[in-house]
Amino acid sequence: MRARSPGIRRARTAAPAALVLALTLTCTGCYRGAGDTGNDGSDTINVLMVNNPQMVDLQRLTARHFTARTGIKVHFTLLPEDDLRDKMSQDFSSQAGQYDVASLSNYETPIYARNGWLTPLGERAAKDPEFDQQDILAPVRSSLTAADGKVYAEPFYGESSFLMYRKDVLAAAGLTMPAHPTWRQVAALAAKLDGAEKGMKGICLRGQPGWGQLAAPLTTVVNTFGGTWFDKDWKPRVDSPEFTRATRFYVDLIREHGEAGAPQAGYTECLNDMQQGKVAMWYDATAGAGSLESDGSKVAGKIGYAPAPVEKTKSSGWLYTWAWGVQKASRHQDAAWKFVSWASGKGYERLVGKELGWSRTPGGKRASLYRDPEYREESGAFAAATEEAIRTARPDDPGVQPRPAPGIQFVGIPEFSDLGTKASQEISAAIAGKQSVAAALAESRRLAQEVSDAYTDR
């Protein structure tokens, strides 16, 4: 995701409230151990990362493979996504140096880079003969490049979104998934697949509040229905006819043919429902395919993969990456880079494939992985669909009209984390039947106006 274009109007406020608060935090009693030296004389770095399965695998493999080779010890702190972002924002904004490396996304990277919190990594990558920066898929590489043209993070894995569906269930019902489905076609299939097997619902879609939960898939639907959060002049469009139609479609689809407990269902809940045969289709992150096809999965070999459904656009899949950023205040930049190079490298992908299985490889970032015959043999069901989804993602032009900031499933500004979360709470309440879509969007429009006021001249 690139930073805002030169024509964008800067906010009158220097930073959102959450970041201002983080900047004013004192560091009395803060841990200053980043880059300490271990008892055996080896470097020690501290890494803060999200507690998803791929990161847990990394933690398990680090001592035997990275530390044994380099002598660099790694102390990991694993946290849920929201907790991770809170701690990372506090530490990096104050440049406290508690963590040398943190897992951050293509949402945070340009923002953190603009604030001077990250070390540029491009020069180190260019001098590292094993890293091969050009092997990283162009959309992912671009999304981690800031307005100054420098790369500030290296990807651990990348993802887009697509539609996952039970091939066997559709076949038994005499139904066919279109090669490039529209959302209207998906809704029609969901209606016919309700009850196809005992207790099965037609589709699973995120309903759990959060800018990275419900707001992510919903925004891709909004984009392809012709809507946008803001027009090019920062005018809120949350209650526009297009945004309203998309939101009403999404809410109705979940309420009529979606999973049980939808207002509390996010990525993990939908993944579990798909694995357990409770839903026939699931629109979500391409990263979910590895779990569906992994050893022990009850649905392995039964899943088909179709592009993200569209209406008015040619494509609608999102672009996201968990990546590694090095804090500018880190006192062990060399050791931090060695870890980043290893964790983002080709060798680590092969290591996971050999030791844990290719379906657990943190893919979606390197072109070479999709040419690897062993990976394609084990992950052939979803490898090509994943690569195509990432290559066709359009973060600078995701809809039918110009945007004031980049981003597909988010708006690339600091304020969106708060706006997206609060608006999604309103829409989740509509999914729960507690209020109408119109009421949810009216409140969301008010919230969006507050953001707009910071980016426009009064």
From TrEMBL:
<feature type="signal peptide">
    <location>
        <begin position="1"/>
        <end position="32"/>
    </location>
</feature>
<dbReference type="InterPro" id="IPR050490">
    <property type="entry name" value="Bact_solute-bd_prot1"/>
</dbReference>
<dbReference type="InterPro" id="IPR006059">
    <property type="entry name" value="SBP"/>
</dbReference>
<keyword id="KW-0732">Signal</keyword>
<protein>
    <submittedName>
        <fullName>ABC transporter substrate-binding protein</fullName>
    </submittedName>
</protein>
<dbReference type="Pfam" id="PF01547">
    <property type="entry name" value="SBP_bac_1"/>
</dbReference>
